[in-house]
Design brief:
By secondary structure, the protein is of the alpha/beta class. The chain contains four helices and five strands; from the N terminus they run E-H-E-E-H-E-H-H-E. The radius of gyration is 13 Å and the shape is globular. It starts with a strand and ends in a 5-residue tail after the last strand.
Length: 113
Amino acid sequence: MTVLCISHNDELGRRVLETARAAAAAIGTDVVVAISPNSVPDFVSAENTVTLPENQDEADAILDLAVARNALLLVVGIRRRSPVGKFLLGSSAQRLILEAEIPVLTTKESHRD
């Protein structure tokens, strides 16, 4: 059993990883970090890291990985997006929240003025 998180190479990705580590410590398990091959975080060690396949939708790959790793919790980052952006690009985070069979913990970008 594990906590699965999705981390990209940005500040939100760093927050997601910190949140996943805190959740894993609270329930006494480990963290597996899923990373996109196009956005490998420089702050994640190779240990317990899984690179998502390039030829599969990211949300589908994460949902499959959650099942394969018997994850207890999924941690994802969310960003504020415009209605047009949501319509044109969709939202992997929204799909994960709605379709995951396990609890999903979200963390968001820090608010900058």
